[in-house]
């Protein structure tokens, strides 16, 4: 869409990925990863701010946002970890700065710990990383995805709208909410919404959870103190597991920190990035 263009296309192992690059070439490279059920659009304010000092890469995961959505598509966390590794090679980035939110955190961790992707530093924002994860609603939909996929479009729209709206602590602006819901509408979007939930398997974090103690790159863990999707206690647990991790709770923010408190999140990220060795 014109308000957040992703003009570039990369053909990944899980379908076409739409992406963009902000900031001048030659600046430190930084990749942003979004979560579910969102897209890179949630990073727009933070990305534009970071692009003043960095070359920022943004992308929509396969099955999300403007990227390909197709029947039988593998959009699991395992697949997304491979795709991100492929993208880093396509972009020619060997040790970028990486900032990841929600399931994007699991994707970044899988690429680093299981696929050998090298990072200069890693910032995780309310990531999916520790078991158990998934709200009661999320698990209900995952276990009955075929039933939910058959909902009449108006009921599906209402369900997605309420679900996405529950991510923001103080509440999302109506225009932002509609922008986040839009990719999940229509025949392809509705099927894609339930496909990505149906493929959300906790084993994809279980198999790397024991490796967090071996992370050696500088790591920042930010967490919205009012996160109703993943309790802030999980953030403290993760920060304790990663050696030397910097812990940054963010007040008055829910799960979608980028929308709730973009200035505070950007300040936390810049404070971390500017003091890297």
From TrEMBL:
Record GO terms (molecular function): hydrolase activity
Domain (AB hydrolase-1): residue spans on this chain: 28-260
Keywords carried by this UniProt record: Hydrolase
Pfam families membership: Abhydrolase_1
InterPro entries in the record: AB_hydrolase_1 (IPR000073), AB_hydrolase_fold (IPR029058), Carboxylesterase_BioH (IPR050228), Epox_hydrolase-like (IPR000639)
Keyword Membrane carried by entry: no
PANTHER family (UniProt xref): HYDROLASE ALPHA/BETA FOLD FAMILY (PTHR43194), PIMELOYL-[ACYL-CARRIER PROTEIN] METHYL ESTER ESTERASE (PTHR43194:SF5)
Name of this protein: Alpha/beta hydrolase
Organism annotation: Streptomyces ambofaciens
């Amino acid at each position: 869409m014109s308000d957040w263009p992703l003009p570039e296309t990369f053909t990944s192992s899980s379908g076409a990925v739409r992406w963009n690059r902000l900031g001048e070439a030659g600046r430190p490279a930084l990749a942003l990863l979004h979560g579910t059920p969102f897209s890179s659009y949630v990073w727009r304010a933070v990305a534009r701010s970071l692009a003043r000092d960095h070359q920022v890469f943004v992308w929509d995961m396969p099955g999300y946002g403007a990227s390909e959505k197709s029947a039988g598509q593998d959009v699991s966390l395992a697949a997304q970890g491979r795709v991100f590794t492929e993208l880093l090679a396509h972009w020619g980035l060997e040790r970028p700065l990486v900032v990841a939110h929600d399931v994007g955190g699991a994707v970044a961790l899988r690429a680093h710990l299981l696929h050998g992707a090298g990072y200069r530093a890693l910032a995780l924002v309310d990531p999916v990383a520790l078991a158990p994860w998934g709200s009661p609603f999320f698990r209900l939909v995952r276990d009955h995805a075929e039933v939910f996929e058959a909902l009449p479009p108006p009921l599906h729209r209402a369900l997605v709208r309420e679900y996405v709206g529950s991510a923001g602590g103080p509440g999302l602006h109506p225009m932002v909410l509609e922008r986040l819901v839009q990719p999940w509408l229509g025949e392809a979007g509705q099927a894609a919404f339930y496909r990505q939930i149906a493929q959300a398997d906790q084993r994809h974090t279980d198999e790397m959870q024991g490796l967090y103690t071996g992370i050696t790159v500088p790591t920042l863990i930010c967490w919205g103190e009012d996160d109703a999707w993943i309790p802030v206690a999980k953030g403290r647990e993760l920060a304790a597991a990663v050696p030397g991790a910097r812990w940054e709770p963010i007040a008055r923010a829910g799960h979608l920190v980028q929308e709730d408190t973009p200035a505070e999140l950007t300040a936390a990220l810049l404070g971390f990035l500017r003091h890297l060795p």
